Every structure is written in structure tokens, then in C-alpha cells.
Amino acid sequence: MSDDKISSDKKFSILPLLTVNFIGALGYSVILPFLVYLVRDFGGNEIIYGLMGAVYPAFQLIGGPILGKWSDKIGRRKILLLSQIGTLASWLIFIVAFFVPHITFFEFTFKEDAILFTLPLIILFVARAFDGLTGGNISVANAYLADISTPQTRKKNFGKMSSAMNLGFIVGPVLSGLIAATASGELKTVILSAFISLVGVFIIQFLLKESKSGEPDDNSAADLPSSKPAIWKVKDVPIMMVLYFLIFLAFNFFYATFPIYAADILQWDPSQLGPFFTVLSGVMIFTQGPGLNYLNDHFNEKQLFVAGSILLILMFGCLTFTNTIIIYVGAVLFGLGNGLMWPSFLSIFSTKGTKNQQGAIQGFASSFGSFASIIGLVAGGFIFGYLEQRIFMLSAATMLLVLIVGAFINVEKD
């Protein structure tokens, strides 16, 4: 059976995939507002917070390409299920950190502060590492969507998937704020994340259809498309990989440092950090929903990619100010810019290579993203200690480079 026959957009509902992406974002965003505070309660600081963030992409660097190639061979659904079970297991490990004694293994001094490396912190690192090793859900989900999308539905489908994830990032901080106000709120929030992941397992198992037979098509039987040499020979893939790396680098400077910036310089608590991400994600949902539905009829993907990149450069500039109004203007620009740029980029990326290569291409792309995330998350914590909010200018400069390199993208006409 050919993949084209299996992957008819008319035969597939993307609702289960959207739901899986929604709950994946929800499960993580629920703990996002208080994670930096939890790391500090366990003895860490901004450096440890950055290192903890880098553990996930470091192990995803190992697991992503393997899971991507497996999905080309045995099907997307099985790998998505494996990834979701891994996420569930990681949250269960995370919960253990709340119940072990605060044994200190060693400590060091950074900027005159004593930093403790405790048993709970080690368990958090193990949890994030395990999730990263099995974390092929995003790249495989992108490959799944590429399988079932036609040229006419591709842009809308990737916009819907991004909207589903951003909806999770809206609901998550709201739930976190409500639960955190109760006794043992942090523990309850992690338990909720585990339950959400369990729901994801059931959705994939019982509602998600397989998008791919796992059988090579006639054009790829002679040359296994998931090998590195074959992938790098695909037209435009090298430049898309460079862009993938740069985009992730810019965003991970932000993700590594904004919660620290909010806590230390803006003096925000979790109840104030949550609304910021809610506004940001809300604007993104509007942009990726009705916004893209309208704009896709008037502009091509490359034009939307360029426009979004420009807005993101302006957004990072706003974050260098400490004025709350300007920072919230930055949140709106983030939602608009990323809402245009990222779905358009993914839509362009999904046209590169054959359906039988998409799992491998997305897997290698996730490795580039993981490598950039490691650099951004680890370096971000160190750099913030010296530059503070001026680090966001590094993100702006990186997005400017994305804008320049993106000028060389070739966009196929539908």
C-alpha cells in the first residue's frame, strides 16, 4: 500500500493529533510559572535552571533522529505512543523529587551565592533526561501532519497544530495559578501534568490512526531515505537545518532567562508570570487561527515567515526594558511574530523531501533544535548573570540572521 493512499487528507481527522499537542503543551506549561522557584527551593540558581532546561534537548539530540527513522520504518503512531509513555514516566520520576530528603552532594559559589546540588535536583535532572530521550513527539507529529496534508491544506494544518500547542500554553499557567494557591500546590501541579500525559497515552492508543504504512515506496526502496547522506542531498534541507538551529537558539536564550529576569529584576511572582504567558499564547492562537486563515489567501509562506521574523526582532527589543507596559507589548509582538513565522516555516519545511523521508528529516531537524537549545539554555544562564536583560539583544541579533538566511529559501507553489 502506498503512503499516498494511506495519507489522504480526506480520510484523516487531525483532531486527535491536535489534542495530543494541546495536552503536551498543557502538561509542561502547568509547571512553567513555578519551575525556576522550585529549582531554587531545591538549592539551585539560574545556572542550574539553565542546565536543567538543557538536559531535555541534550538527550533529545540522541533520541530524536532514532525515533524519526523508526517512524519512517514502523509508522508514526507507534513512535508517538512511545514518546507519550516516556513523558508520563518522566513526570512520575519528577514527583519522587518532592519526597526524597534534601541531601547535599556538593556545593559551589557563584556571584557570592552558595549553590547546592541536592538529591531532589538530581532527580529532576533524571526526569528531564528521560523525557528528552523519548521525546520524539514533536518531530514525529510534524512528520505525521506532513503525511496527511495536501498542498491545499498544509499551511492551515500546521497553523492549527501550532494553535493547539499555544492553547495549552494559555490554559496551563491559568491552572497553575489556581492550584499553586492551595496547600502543596507545586506537587499537585506535577501530579496534574502526569495525569494529562496519561490522557495523551489513551488518545494516541485509541483515537489516532496510523498515517503511514512503514513500507518504502518505489522511489526510495533503492536508497534508504533516512540515512544522513540522503537527507543532506535533499534540495533546501541544509539551509532549512541552519534556520532551525538559529530559530531555536534565539528562542532558548529567551526561555532560559525570561523567568529569571521576571523573578529577579521585575520582582514578579508565579501569579504575575502566568498572565504574561497567557497573553503571549492568546495572541498566538488568534494569529495562527483566524489570522493565518485570512493571510494565507493573500500572502505566501515566505512572506509570512519574513513578516513574523521582523516582529520577533522588535519583540526581543521590547524585553530589554523594565516597564511593564512595554514588556506586555513585547508579549503581543511575540504572539504575532511567532504566530506567523513558525507555522509558515514548518509548512515550508514539510515540502522538502518525500513522505518517506519526512520522519528522518524532522528527526534530524529536532537534533539541530536540540543542539541550539543546549547552547541557548546553558549559555543563557551564564550570560544573564553578566548582561541581565540585555541578553535579549542576542536573541534579536539571531533573529536578524534568520531573516537574512531566510531570504534564500525556495518556496514551492501549490
Concise structural overview:
The protein is built from 16 helices and two strands. With 414 residues, the chain is mainly alpha-helical. Residues 13-414 form the Major facilitator superfamily (MFS) profile domain.
Secondary structure blueprint with pairings:
Layout: H1 3-6, H2 15-29, H3 32-41, H4 46-74, H5 76-96, E1 104-110, E2 113-118, H6 119-133, H7 137-148, H8 154-180, H9 185-206, H10 228-232, H11 237-264, H12 270-295, H13 301-318, H14 324-349, H15 358-387, H16 392-406
Antiparallel strand pairs: 1-2
What does this structure look like?
With 414 residues, the chain is mainly α. It has a single domain (3-210, 225-406), classed as Up-down Bundle (Growth Hormone, Chain: A), CATH 1.20.1250.20. Helices cover 73% and strands 3% of the residues. The chain has helices at residues 3-6, 15-29, 32-41, 46-74, 76-96, 119-133, 137-148, 154-180, 185-206, 228-232, 237-264, 270-295, 301-318, 324-349, 358-387, 392-406, and strands at residues 104-110, 113-118. The chain has a two-stranded antiparallel sheet. Strand 1 (104-110) and strand 2 (113-118) form a beta hairpin. The radius of gyration is 21 Å and the shape is globular.
